[in-house]
Amino acid sequence: MLAEALSNLTQSSHPDLLVGFNKADDAGVFRISETQALVQTVDFFTPIVDDPFWFGKIAAANALSDVYAMGGTPVTALSIVCFPEGEMPPAVLAQILAGSEETVNESGAVIVGGHSVKDKELKYGLSITGLINPKNLITNAGAKPGDVLYLTKPLGTGIISTAIKHDACPEELMQRIMKQMATLNKEAAEQAVRIGAHAMTDVTGFGFLGHALEMAKASNVTLEIDTNAIPIIPEALDFAKAGYLTGGAKDNQKHIGSALEIKGAIDENILHTLYDPQTSGGLLVAAPEGSTVEHDFSKIGRVLAKESDTKSLGLH
């Protein structure tokens, strides 16, 4: 829907606009000097967990992730609030804001204000501004044949969030998943910068395969992915088998379509997790072969020269 709406708009053009909305990247980047550029993004959504404090933390980590995915450093944040005044107590909003502030403070950025409106449905998120030296900018368009692909967080949060909404998720798992979604991608991004990553994106609403496709197309390469190497939350496979799937996953599968080539037999529940929309997911990183990485970087595949005009992703 968004792609269709944007297709009729004139693309912004400016000599200092390094990354605009036409790039399908994680954030916009605008150069303000030879050594400094602004990294700007915004993200908000409805609650995916019942605990308002953790919802605030997750929403903040999710928004901050877009700046990290460009290799930038977040510096300021603005809260965006849609709140059903009169239907929920103000204490709920206070807890959301407190959780958000805790995570933003952890990132080193500062909340400088925000905006709120009355709405029938609760929504919360943030607009984040970061900084980066233009020479160090990492986009989703730099993957090179021979690169290794890494993923920094396990998949399956969308499926488990669906189980949470149906009261089917055990408390221990719920706590573990909330902690994962609230974990910043700060250290992972810093490691990606240290190993000289050529391309990077965070895995969120379009699912792992959707964001992998964006990287493949932007870089004009084919991504070859080993499904056995992809980190997946084990319980997500059980919930997928039980039918706790999202409508977003079906949309993602439809969007990817024939760009994906599946080689061999792959468990359908693993495929469900690869299409599954993630909230505050990990980073997908393309880096030179031989890079020394830490335990949170799972090697999941490689970058190949473009194989055909129609195939951008290969699964085996």
Concise summary:
With 316 residues, the protein is of the alpha+beta class.
SSE order and pairing:
Blueprint: H1 2-6, E1 17-19, E2 28-31, E3 37-45, H2 52-68, E4 73-83, H3 90-107, E5 110-118, E6 123-132, E7 148-151, H4 157-165, H5 171-182, H6 186-194, E8 199-202, H7 207-219, E9 221-225, H8 234-241, H9 247-256, E10 260-262, H10 268-275, E11 283-287, E12 298-305, E13 313-315
Spatial arrangement of strands, main beta sheet: 8-11-7-12-9-13-10
Number of helices: 10
Low-confidence stretches: none
**Biggest sheet statistics:** 7 strands, mixed
Description:
There is one protein chain. By secondary structure, the protein is of the alpha+beta class. The protein folds into two domains: 135 residues, PurM-like, N-terminal domain (60s Ribosomal Protein L30, Chain: A), CATH 3.30.1330.10; 168 residues, PurM-like C-terminal domain (Phosphoribosyl-aminoimidazole Synthetase, Chain A, domain 2, Alpha-Beta Complex). 34% of the residues lie in helices and 25% in strands. The chain is built from ten helices and 13 strands. Strands 8-11-7-12-9-13-10 form a seven-stranded mixed beta sheet, sandwiched between helices. Strands 1-2-3-6-4-5 form a six-stranded mixed beta sheet, with helices on one face. Strand 4, helix 3 and strand 5 form a beta-alpha-beta unit. It is globular. The two termini are 30 Å apart.
